[in-house]
Design goal:
Layout: H1 2-8, H2 15-28, H3 32-46, H4 50-67, H5 72-86, H6 90-103, H7 109-125, H8 127-136, H9 140-146, H10 153-166, H11 171-179, H12 182-192, H13 195-198, H14 201-214, H15 218-226, H16 229-237, H17 261-274, H18 283-292, H19 295-303, H20 310-324, H21 328-332, E1 338-339, E2 359-360, H22 361-370, H23 378-391, H24 396-412, H25 420-426, H26 437-450, H27 454-460, E3 464-465, E4 475-476, H28 477-491, H29 496-509, H30 513-520, H31 524-533, H32 541-556, H33 566-591, H34 593-596, H35 617-633, H36 649-685, H37 690-727, H38 732-919, H39 926-977, H40 981-1023
Antiparallel strand pairs: 1-2, 3-4
């Protein structure tokens, strides 16, 4: 019975089906209570199934807000559901990632591999969220890092790539990975894959992960130093020692080099440069640690090894530059290092290295940078140039020593091909090989040696050419470089050569009046620069701009005592060149891609053309910082000289006095502008006080004339003093002091007069302003009163208009109401007639239903009596079943006892036969056969009895079936007419009674069979 009921029970609904049902109920419900119940159900699912609820019920929820907005309870539930949809359960996503991380603990290959690949796919879709989940997951990072120890390549490589991607943009994950000993595992993987020289793509992935862990992460860099990471890097970069032993593996496997070897070595050098970023707090500690492990000498040997690939040599030199830049002890210890020189290749393509003595590193770097080489080695050349710059970066003593050695070598003469001064002074004609970068590198290095170093500039100015005692013309270093510049421009040489000279001259002449005077000693150079600044065409934008910038620097820092005075220089710039041409050249230089988008372009190794390297980074920064000053230089008055911090005391005193005068003039101009602005405000606000204002303006104009007269007198005195200064140079100090004293007295007197005049004027102005303020207050008060009266009258008019509009609206509403009531009255009368007709119809229907109900009650009573009779018969059948069950149990007990006795007798009979056989007597088997025959007869008798009993039982069953069949037919006829729930219940009981009767029949059959078995048992007992 229970199974039948379970089979008829409806299937359980899933969450999706339930949500769908609730959504349809929400959209189709007409009652507020039904909609509220549906919303409550959706709210319970919104937290766990936000996507399903949102896709099916979002529109219904929004519509419910519009429809049921007045119901507070419904609105509250709707808003809570919407809030849950927009704030889903964050733990569910965390649980998903946690499940995948838990699978990494299993040893199964596919579980670990597919979990890593799935996390990788999730990370590609939601990078930040995946990182957050891994950070908060318990044992998340240890499990991920532990995949690097997996012996299976697929799992290990998948974990390596995932760790590299996760650590790329998350500082916290980088620290956690390092805390799980990631550095040691990475180096173990590199060693297992064949180190740098024999490793493949796995080594590259390891280096990518290592780069992500240490890039801009000071704490991880510290951990790298403290855990022996520097020593492991040195071990990886150290080349294997060559021995005379035969190779261990077949065909020399130990000497095999992977095609990825160069990329691996280059990648490790790039990682080392990440530790040496200029300006970082940990850079100095990293430099010291690298130097202690001998990394500097190791990298230099790699850079000067001819067997090393060019990109690796370039990266090695750049790493060396970063390693010593800004670290004074390392810079001082760099020069004594020695390396093998880069000899020119022999005809057979090899480079003889045996027997060649080593040279000092500075000499080797200068040979690389300054000596003529092919274009294919430009990157190595530029890296050597950067290494030399790093050697004397921010170290004045090394700068001075380097410059002194260059000057001494140049003055000594001889074959100094790598001497930067000799290269500069000789120009491009000093070499048989046309190499535009040879003078460019020499000029750039000299620029860095003297940039913003006045002492170095003064030291370099002592270099000259020619012997005056032998009647030769003495030419200074600046004039020689300028001559080389003009010569290169006239001959149309490569742009890089004049750009190098112009860079050096701009940096040298800036803020150095003595160097400017040296340059102006050859006046023809100015006219040559002006001509090249006026050169037309778009092919020489850089040259024109640099020539204009150099002319601006010369004018900005020249003096009246220069060989070409400032007053003579200005007409050259404004008339020969022109202000617009000058500014246009400066502007085009500023907007040129080489300056605006400056970068050192890496040249293509497959090309033989010159690379696009024209400027030095420091010079570009210098230009960008001073473009505005150079643009304003041409507008500066020639009588005003710039302040030079390296000139004498008298010049400083004059400049300070001029500065004070300029400040006072500016203060007067500011006061005048303030007074004018105040006058304009008074004109706007106080129209009644124009006469007073005009008198104030007259007084201000008087003060202006006085100030202008003072300024004019002061300029006349200064010009007079300048003329006397030129005529009487010997008495300059005395006359200058007297003039300064007189000037100070005049200035003090003018200041006092100005202060008194301003005080009187300010007092008069304040009095007049007070009177005007009082008058203005009275006018404003009257105006306020008039405004108030006007506003009150307007309010009264508006109120009357409002009352009139309300009366009209009320009259219209009343007329509309009367018309509406008439319409409703007519509708109500028609509706009353319809209701009376419907009432009569309903009464007739009710009388018919009463008669049918009475008939149904009669039939129900008859069925009730029949059910009671069936219940009585059922109770009697149950009693008879119980009696037969007791009889069967008793018979079964007797049968068990007989079986026990029979077994004992059979055992005793067998023992007796055995004894007779032992005594020698013959025992026949006839007795056994007789026993078997008797048993068969008894079985046949028992079968006959059983058949008779079965016939009787079948007859009883047929009678019961006939009775129940009649009752079932009656029941079917009655059920067709029944509509009441009580009758259906009675029908269910009758069916239950029939089922119970069938069960009773089955029980009777079982008891009959068992009783038959009992009879057979009794027969056996009696026969025994």
């Amino acid at each position: 019975m229970m199974r039948m009921l379970e089979a008829q029970a409806p299937a359980k609904q899933t969450a999706t089906e339930t949500i769908s049902t609730l959504c349809s109920r929400l959209s189709s419900a007409t009652l507020l209570e039904d909609r509220r119940a549906a919303i409550l159900g959706l709210r319970s699912f919104a937290k766990e199934y936000p996507a399903s609820v949102a896709s099916g019920a979002l529109r219904g929820l929004i519509a419910c807000l519009t429809k049921d907005g007045e119901d507070v309870d419904t609105t509250k539930v709707v808003l809570e559901t919407l809030l849950m949809l927009f704030n889903p359960n964050e733990d569910s996503r965390q649980d998903n990632i946690t499940i995948l991380l838990d699978l990494l603990e299993t040893p199964d290959f596919y579980s670990r591999l597919y979990s890593l690949q799935l996390i990788q796919a999730i990370f590609n879709a939601r990078a930040e969220r995946t990182q957050e989940c891994i950070l908060t997951a318990p044992l998340g990072t240890p499990r991920l890092v532990a995949t690097l120890d997996d012996p299976r390549d697929a799992v290990r490589n998948a974990g390596l790539i995932l760790l590299s991607d996760l650590s790329q943009a998350s500082t916290e994950l980088q620290k956690l990975f390092v805390f799980e000993n990631a550095f040691e595992r990475i180096f173990n993987l590199i060693d297992a894959d064949g180190s740098l020289r024999q490793g493949g793509i796995v080594v590259q992935d390891c280096l990518s992960l290592l780069a992500n862990l240490v890039r801009f992460n000071a704490s991880n860099q510290t951990a790298f130093r403290e855990t022996g990471g520097v020593g492991r890097c040195v071990a990886l970069l150290t080349p294997p020692k060559k021995t005379n032993k035969p190779p261990a593996g077949p065909e020399g496997e130990d000497d095999w080099v992977s095609p990825q070897s160069d990329k691996n070595i280059w990648g490790l050098l790039a990682i080392l440069r990440m530790f040496l970023v200029h300006g970082s707090t940990s850079t100095k500690a990293n430099q010291t640690a690298f130097a202690k492990h001998g990394l500097l000498q190791l990298i230099l040997d790699m850079a000067f090894d001819p067997a090393t690939a060019v990109p690796i040599r370039v990266e090695a030199l750049n790493t060396c530059a970063d390693l010593i830049r800004g670290n004074a002890p390392l810079q001082e210890g760099f020069a004594p290092l020695q390396v093998r020189p880069l000899a020119s290749p022999t005809p057979n393509g090899t480079s003889p290295q045996n027997g060649i003595p080593k040279i000092y590193i500075i000499e080797a770097l200068l040979d690389l940078a300054v000596r003529p080489v092919t274009n294919e080695l430009f990157d190595i050349r530029f890296a050597a140039y950067e290494c030399i710059k790093a050697y004397f970066f921010n170290h004045l003593q090394i700068r001075a020593h380097f410059l002194n050695r260059a000057i001494e070598g140049h003055m000594a003469g001889g074959d100094e091909t790598a001497n930067i001064l000799t290269t500069l002074m000789a120009g491009s004609h000093g070499s048989s090989v046309i190499d535009p970068y040879r003078p460019w590198f020499a000029a750039a290095l000299t620029f860095h040696l003297i940039f913003e170093d006045h002492e170095a500039k003064q030291l370099l100015m002592t270099v000259d050419e020619g012997d005056a005692e032998q009647g030769e013309e003495v030419v200074t270093c600046i004039q020689t470089i300028t001559a080389n510049l003009i010569s290169s421009l006239q001959l149309g040489e490569d742009e890089r050569i004049p750009i190098g000279y112009l860079m050096l001259l701009c940096g040298w002449l800036y803020e150095d009046a003595a160097a400017v005077d040296d340059f102006l000693g050859e006046a023809s150079s100015i006219h040559s620069l002006v001509q090249y600044a006026l050169r037309p065409g778009n092919d020489h934008v850089v040259i024109r701009g640099l020539c204009a910038a150099l002319l601006g620097i010369i004018y900005e820092f020249s003096t009246k005592d220069s060989p070409v005075p400032r007053r003579e220089l200005l007409p050259i710039l404004t008339q020969s060149l022109g202000r617009e041409k000058y500014l246009d050249a400066i502007s085009q230089l500023r907007q040129h891609p080489f300056v605006r988008d400056f970068e050192v372009l890496a040249r293509d190794g497959s090309s033989t053309a010159l690379p696009d390297v024209y400027f030095d980074e420091t010079f570009v920064d210098f230009l960008k910082d001073n473009f505005s000053r150079l643009s304003r230089a041409i507008d500066r008055d020639p009588g005003l000289e710039m302040h030079h911090k390296y000139e004498g005391i008298d010049r400083d005193l004059v400049d300070s006095l001029r500065g004070e005068i300029d400040e006072k003039v500016k203060a007067l101009e500011k006061l005048q502008s303030d007074l004018l602005s105040m006058e304009q405000k008074l004109n706007q606000e106080q129209g009644d006080h124009r006469r007073t204002q005009e008198s104030s303006i007259t007084q201000l104009n008087t003060i202006k004339r006085i100030n202008e007269d003072l300024h004019t007198n002061h300029e006349k005195e200064m010009r007079k003093r300048d003329r006397e200064h030129k005529q009487t140079v010997l008495d300059l100090e005395n006359r200058q002091n007297l003039q300064l004293a007189a000037l100070n007295n005049k200035l003090q007197q003018a200041e006092k007069d100005k202060t008194l005049a301003l005080g009187k004027m300010r007092q008069e102005y304040e009095e007049k302003l007070h009177a005007a303020t009082v008058a203005r207050a009275e006018i404003e008060q009257r105006l306020t009163t008039a405004h108030a009266n006007r506003q009150e009258a307007l309010d009264n008019v508006r109120a009357l208009e409002q009352q009139q509009r309300q009366a009209k609206d009320e009259l219209a509403d009343a007329q509309q109401m009367i018309q509406q009531l008439r319409t409703e009255l007519e509708t109500s009368s028609k509706h009353a007639t319809d209701l009376e007709q419907r009432k009569k119809d309903l009464q007739t229907t009710i009388e018919k239903q009463k008669k049918e109900i009475q008939e149904l009650k009669t039939k129900t009573q008859d069925l009730t009596w029949k059910v009671k009779d069936a219940e009585d018969r059922q109770r009697k059948a149950e009693a008879s079943v119980k009696e037969k069950e007791e009889e069967r149990r008793a018979a079964q007990t007797e049968l068990d006892d007989l079986f026990v006795v029979l077994g004992d007798l059979e055992e005793k009979r067998a023992m007796d036969k055995k004894r007779l056989k032992e005594l020698g007597e013959e025992v026949s088997d006839m007795e056994d056969e007789d026993d078997e025959d008797d048993d068969e007869d008894e079985d046949e008798d028992e079968d006959e009895d059983d058949n008779e009993e079965e016939d009787e039982v079948e007859a009883d069953e047929e009678e019961n079936e006939k009775k129940h069949g009649d009752e079932a037919d009656d029941k079917d006829d009655e059920e067709e007419k029944e509509e009441d729930l009580e009758d259906e219940g009675d029908g269910g009981k009758e069916e239950q009674g029939i089922d119970q009767t069938d069960k009773e029949k089955e029980k009777v059959k079982d008891v009959t069979a068992k009783n038959g078995g009992g009879k057979r048992g009794k027969g056996r007992k009696s026969k025994a």
